[in-house]
Amino acid sequence: MIRGRGATTAAALPDAVELVILAVRAGMSPSGAVRAVANDVDERLRPGFAEVVHRLHRGQRLADALDALPEMVGPDASGFADGLATADRYGLPLEPVLDQLAAETRAHRRREAERHARTLPVRLAFPLVVCTLPSFVLLAIVPAVLGALSTLRG
Question: Collapsing DSSP states into helix, strand and coil, what is residue 27?
Answer without folding.
Answer: coil
